[in-house]
Design goal:
alpha+beta, Beta-Lactamase, 4 domains, 20 helices, about 35% helix, phosphatase activity
């Protein structure tokens, strides 16, 4: 059996057909996929929404309805066919537009049964509901059929949009007529499945007008002549299967007119059976829905273009945001990596910069000249929750060389980043050591990895590893950011390593130059030295305590300009000159000693500029017998010495300040002065460098006020218990230092033994 609308046409489509196929067929087929495979009641979804079209066949010889499609049966309820036209009309609740039941002589079915054509008339169906509301308006149209002498007529109830807001009956009628124009343009066909090929046996004038085929060209042929190469074969196959099974079908096909132009045709076909249930014909309803399909296709294309543009904009925005994030990361890296020279702190900062922005976790490993791992710093996005797993991982590599096949070893050997994706536990087995088969790698998340070598001027000293749980791997942009970050971190860490090495040498030199305080009978002394945190852990601050001829004791504090090894070396030379001149046979007073030292600096050409305070303390009797002490002091531009009495009172020893050492201007100034005082046994002297008192002001900000610093030192020492020892004093004043931008040296000396009570 063939279909009543279908396959290859008798006329080949022209170039206009090809153009229509190019612009409409693709998107329209997508838009109508669902509709083209629907089955069931006759639906004109593209013309009349979801409203069913009720179709009746009336046998004029008997005045009975012999066929009613699903929609028509739904209108009349449980009426069994064949049924008299008047009875069907009553069951369907057919009334005039005002809701009044129609008399038998005026009912559309009666006129159709009499063989009269019905050009179009608005009627209501379904009677009146419980609230007194009349049923919907439909447009009734019908005409007799000439089919081999059978006295049949076709009656169709076409749903139309209901007029709203019009009180004038004439206006209502006019609106109904206008809205029925579209409905009356629907093509109706009848085919005979009892004949070979299921040919058309009748078509209405709308069919010839819409398709372009005359009655003579249509009747006697299967409707497949409407089809062309672009007609959807799946929709045709579905229609054939439905009709072969004797059931209703509804599809939308791309059909063609005789001149080759294409149009979208919505076809709804329903079987007609006689009283014995035998299939006698198919009634087809066909509608040109090209305008709607094209509009839908254009709308879908516009929507797709909008969505594509939105996705492109989102991609561009994501790319821009990622670029901004990378720039922000690099800017932050520059700030963070330039703010410290501490190796451990720099490694922690580098790791935290990358998590979670670039990786789920990172590990920075340092190796020695033999390639043995000496330290591992690791950070995970889970924070301390992953610390145990990180420590377990680190323990497997510390103190050993990386396996030769590991990304760490390959990156260090080649000097290039190593990028691995799609990692599995088994794939990592050759270089995961004892972590294979444990939960550690799963806990950390090891789907992909990037290993970046960390290099210095002479060698590769470490590796920077970024790991993600996602096995998809790192994008090339991420690798470039990691490489750049690794380069910056490598430079910063190498600088920190070299600084650490230099600081170690400098600190050793510093401690060699600063003496161990000698044990002198009758004296107690303590000293404290702290290097500036922003320098090389070495500077020009120094102190000294030395026995002098005649039982006197020399007490020295000084500060050479500079914070490097050169300053430390100059400090050593100055300290030696002061010691030498203080031991001169004529035992000069401190002022004369500083004057001689100043001249020697010029004679020897030593580029030294320094402040210093030199004191000579001589006991008046037995140093351990509790007698008083005669103390002389000369000051070369140094902060004033403080003295504390045995009772705990604190004061400035003297206010004399001479010219700095090494300026070359001493011959132009008055001779250096020396202050002499007698102090009771148990008195303590506090000598210090300016790093102790040049601290941020208590008023806030970065202002440094020396007078305020001396006042704070004065108060702190005075607040200590009367029995405070020199050690207590050193510890007590150290916490005055909140900004270690300068070296600090402190020397406290107690003269003799305080008298009891």
């Amino acid at each position: 059996m063939h279909t009543s609308a279908g396959g290859s046409g008798d006329t080949s489509p022209s170039s206009s057909t090809d153009q229509l196929q190019t612009s409409v067929v693709g998107p329209a087929n997508d838009a109508l996929t669902g509709a083209s495979h629907a089955a069931g009641p006759l639906l004109l979804s593209r013309v009349l929404g979801d409203s069913p079209v009720a179709v009746l066949l009336v046998d004029r010889s008997s005045g009975q309805v012999t066929y009613a499609n699903t929609a028509a049966l739904a209108l009349a309820g449980d009426v069994r066919l064949p049924v008299a036209t008047d009875r069907w009309a009553a069951a369907a609740g057919v009334t005039d537009i005002d809701g009044t039941p129609l008399a038998a002589t005026s009912e559309p079915l009666s006129r159709i049964a009499a063989g009269d054509p019905l050009a179009g008339e608005p009627v209501r169906v379904r009677g009146t509901d419980e609230d007194g509301e009349p049923g919907p308006v439909v447009w009734a149209t019908g005409f007799p059929l000439d089919t081999d002498g059978d006295q049949l007529s076709l009656l169709v109830f076409l749903p139309v949009e209901q007029p709203r807001g019009a009180a004038d009956p004439d206006q209502v009628m006019q609106a109904l007529r206008e809205r029925a124009v579209l409905a009356t343009d629907i093509c109706f066909t009848i085919s005979d499945p009892r004949q070979p090929g299921n040919p058309l046996v009748w078509v209405n004038p709308a069919f010839t007008r819409v398709t372009g085929y005359t009655v003579e060209q249509s009747v006697g042929r299967n409707c497949k002549f409407l089809q062309g190469p672009a007609t959807d074969p799946a929709a045709v196959a579905q229609m054939v299967a439905d009709l072969d099974a004797g059931r209703s079908t509804a599809v939308t096909l791309l059909n063609h007119r005789p001149d080759g132009t294409a149009f979208w045709n919505h076809v709804a076909i329903s079987p007609v059976r006689d009283g014995a249930g035998e299939l006698v014909s198919f009634v087809g309803v066909q509608t040109d829905v090209t305008a709607r399909v094209v509009a839908d296709a254009e709308r879908d294309a516009a929507l797709a273009a909008e969505q594509s543009a939105r996705r492109a904009a989102e991609r561009d925005r994501a790319v821009a945001e990622a670029a901004r994030a990378r720039l922000a990361l690099m800017a932050e890296a520059t700030t963070q990596l330039g703010a410290s020279l501490d190796m451990a702190e720099l490694q922690q900062r580098t790791a935290r910069l990358c998590v979670p922005l670039l990786a789920d976790w990172v590990a920075i490993s340092e190796v020695d000249d033999e390639g043995v791992v000496t330290s591992v710093v690791a950070e995970h996005r889970a924070g301390e929750a992953a610390r145990e797993a990180l420590d377990t991982m680190s323990a497997q590599y510390l103190g050993r060389r990386f396996p030769d096949t590991s990304p760490n070893a390959v990156a260090m050997a080649t000097g290039q980043p190593v990028v691995l994706a799609g990692l599995t536990d088994e794939g990592m087995r050759p270089w995961s050591r004892r972590l294979h088969g444990t939960d550690t790698l799963a806990t950390l998340g090891t789907g992909s990895v990037v290993a970046i070598p960390l290099t210095s001027r002479s060698r590769t000293w470490g590796v920077f590893v970024l790991v993600r749980e996602d096995p998809a791997g790192f994008h090339q942009d991420d690798v470039e950011v990691a490489r750049d970050l690794g380069r910056r971190a490598g430079q910063a860490l190498d600088n920190a390593r070299r600084f650490s090495q230099e600081a170690s040498v400098a600190e050793t030199l510093q401690h060699a130059l600063l003496p161990e305080l000698p044990a002198i009978p009758g004296l107690a002394a303590a000293a404290h030295y702290t290097a500036a945190s922003t320098a090389a852990a070495v500077g020009g601050d120094f102190y000294d305590l030395l026995p002098l001829p005649g039982g006197a004791v020399g007490v020295v504090i000084g500060d050479v300009a500079g914070h490097d090894i050169t300053a430390a070396a100059a400090m050593g030379q100055l300290r030696g000159l002061i010691r030498s001149e203080a031991w001169a046979t004529d035992a000069p007073d401190p002022a004369a000693v500083l004057a001689r030292v100043d001249r020697l600096l010029g004679v020897l050409g030593l580029p030294v500029v320094a402040t210093a305070a030199l004191m000579r303390a001589t006991p008046s009797g037995d140093p351990q017998g509790g007698g008083s002490w005669v103390v002389e002091c000369a000051n070369a531009g140094h902060p004033p010495v403080l003295v504390r009495t045995p009772e705990g009172a604190v004061e400035v020893f003297c206010d004399e300040h001479g010219l700095l050492l090494g300026t070359g201007l001493s011959h132009e100034r008055p001779p250096r002065a020396c202050t002499t005082r007698e102090l009771p046994a148990g008195s303590q002297l506090l000598l210090y460098t300016d790093g102790l008192i040049e601290q941020p002001s208590l008023a806030g900000g970065r202002v440094r006020d020396i007078d305020e610093g001396i006042a704070r030192l004065h108060e702190r020492w005075a607040a200590m218990p009367a029995a405070a020892t020199p050690d207590d004093a050193c510890r007590g004043v150290d916490d005055l230092v909140v900004d270690r931008s300068d070296d600090v040296a402190v020397l406290v000396v107690r003269l003799g033994v305080p008298r009891p009570g």
